[in-house]
Amino acid sequence: MEEEDYREYMGLRVYRNGKIGRWTGKRWKEVNNATNTKINGKTYMQKRIVMAAFNPQFDISDPELHVLHIDHNKKNKAFENLRVQTLEEREAIWAEAELRGEVRSVISEMIFKIEGIKLDEIVTLPDGSKYRIIRCV
Questions:
Q1: How high is the pLDDT of residue 113?
Q2: What is the residue-wise DSSP string for the chain?
Q3: What averages of pLDDT result for each successive group of 10 residues across the chain (137 residues)?
Q4: CB 12 within 8 A of CB 40
Q5: Is 84 within 8 Å of 65 (Cβ atoms)?
Q6: Taking the model in full, what pTM does it have?
């Protein structure tokens, strides 16, 4: 791996450009550019690892803290391209979108039967209406 600004974090070498290295016993080897990386048996999103390595105030295990890509390119995990969004900020953005009529919140037993739907995901129905999944019942 190329030498540049990096931090050691939970046994990994995390580079400012978003790359992550793992010690193989002989050398540092780059972790593939997938979305997730395991640390001590727990899987973390790579963008959360980069944020935690370079921002000591960021709690990697806090599910209410979201890490967003500033340029909306999910492959660009450089620290300078990431920002933290709190749950309160996220809810305020959703509330504004709902007030503008862009998204309607819905609680539905049926929609959660659809495999692969996650909380806070926007689902577009065949009629074009958009719903934000806010709770699983």
A1: 46
A2: ----SEEEETTEEEETTS-EEEE-SSSEEEPPS-SEEEETTEEEEHHHHHHHHH-TT--TT-TT-EEEETTS-TT---GGGEEEE-HHHHHHHHHHHHHTTS-EEE--TTGGGSTT--TT-EEE-TTS-EEEE----
A3: 78 94 92 78 91 95 90 92 88 75 53 54 66 57
A4: no
A5: yes
A6: 0.68
Q: Distance (Å, rounded) from C-alpha 68 to C-alpha 57? A: 16
pLDDT, position 80: 96
The amino acid present at 124, given as its one-letter code, is T
Which residue, 134, 130, 84, is CA-closest to 107? 134
